[in-house]
Amino acid sequence: MQLRYNFRVYPTSGQRMALARAFGCARVVFNDALRARQEAHAHGLPYIKDTDLQKRVITAAKRTEERAWLADVSSVVLVQSLRDLHAAYRNFFSSVTGKCRGPKVAPPRFKSKRDNRQSIRLTANGFCLRDNGRLYVAKVGDLDVRWSRPLPAAPTSVTVTKDAADRYWASFVVDTEPQVIEDLDFGGPLDTETGIDLGLTHFAVLSDGKKVDAPKFLRQAERKLKRLQKTLSRCAKGSNNRAKARKKVARQHARVADRRRDWHHKESTRLVRDNQALYVEDLAVKGLARTGLAKSVHDAGWSQFVMMLEYKAVKHGRYFARIGRFEPTSQVCSVCGVKDGPKPLRVREWACPECGTVHDRDVNAARNILAAGRADRLNASQSAGKTGPVPAQRVEAGTHRDGQPTVGGVSVR
């Protein structure tokens, strides 16, 4: 499986300028290539092949006066930018033809220099790790990296990113095998299984009756964000004061996201550590985010949490499964199995008309999720003998300036 390790980087002023130059060149190459393919399509010309496009927007462009400055950055950065465009087109074509399941994928769009996130990616030809712990990036120099842990293997690629809060990150992709991490006390097989019902008042309710309160990090920071955004709105557009105010707002939003991500990591790690099998409901988060509960849904971050459960279960040898979102988990009695029909959200407790059991709505749903997950697992093992593949880690572990271990930029304790 592929793991991603993210570490904070502190470039010097000269290296910041070199990185800004690399960000800009990668963006220009991407936009030039996208424009060339759009013009060819508009004129009824055949699709430009990847190799021909690379010769046109990189090799030939460097010889022109308008794009001669492309030679100031590493060619690896430019080639990887074109590969990003190729991947975007492949995803779009797969979505249009029906080969890719899920939501429809839009065609590639032009990149802007005003985007909050700028990044470049380099393969092994464009970077190396020095013996003194610094990261060498071609035509940028040796970057100061705050290491929190050693990499388990040699990285195959690195992505250098600048976020909206003007923080720089180096993200390494490492190929490794799933294994149990002993320092986190992940032991051998367990006989504990749990169903997890996600909500807003209680972030998670487990099938054993335990409830985890929602931290609501965005709600806690609303007062400060309101003050900072008022200051930003009063600044003149294009002024230095507006740029400073924008950075303050971005840092506050980054702080909220970091706190939420850190809490998700701790809760998901605890659940994976204490259970051999985990079952959750496949929620329609995009649909819920368009309702009146949109702010609370985004503040909860269900998708990120479920994704963490998924890749950590694979990494540590646990079983993870999603049950269908149309399962009537809130309508069925978990004791006798009688379906009592839909209930409004204001109903938090109800009594089964058949057996008379009084149910907590969320606990009953979690128990039904556990039962449905067990049934699906049994059917899958009998029919196929194994479960399908699960994607590997996508959320990154990193470090703060003080060198403390972090996850997603937040200290891990």
- Approximate strand percentage: 15-25%
- Given as residue ranges, the uncertain stretches (5+ residues, pLDDT < 50) are 180-184, 385-413
Number of strands: 17
Instruction: Evaluate the radius of gyration.
Output: 25 Å
Order of helices and strands: EHHHEEEEEEEEEHHEHHHEEEHEEE
Strand order in space, largest sheet? 2-6-7-1-5-4-3
* Shape type: globular
Instruction: Give the oligomeric state.
Output: single chain
Number of helices: 9
Supply the helix-strand structural class: alpha+beta
Task: Classify the helix fraction into a percent range.
Answer: 25-40%
Largest sheet: 7 strands, antiparallel
Mean pLDDT: 87
Characteristic key phrases:
seven-stranded antiparallel beta sheet; five-stranded mixed beta sheet; alpha+beta; disordered C terminus
Can you describe this structure?
There is one protein chain. With 413 residues, the protein is an alpha+beta fold. Helices cover 40% and strands 19% of the residues. The protein contains 9 helices and 17 strands. It has helices spanning 13-42, 50-59, 75-97, 217-234, 240-274, 285-288, 294-300, 302-315, 361-383, and strands spanning 2-10, 118-123, 127-129, 135-137, 141-145, 157-162, 168-175, 193-198, 202-206, 211-213, 277-281, 319-323, 349-351, 358-360, 397-399, 405-407, 410-411. The strands form 4 sheets. A 7-stranded antiparallel β-sheet has the order 2-6-7-1-5-4-3. A 5-stranded mixed β-sheet has the order 10-9-8-11-12. A 3-stranded antiparallel β-sheet has the order 15-16-17, with helices on one face. A hairpin with a 3-residue loop joins strand 4 and strand 5. Helix 1 (13-42) crosses helix 2 (50-59) and helix 4 runs antiparallel to helix 5. The longest helix has 35 residues, at 240-274. The model is unreliable at 180-184 and 385-413 (pLDDT under 50).
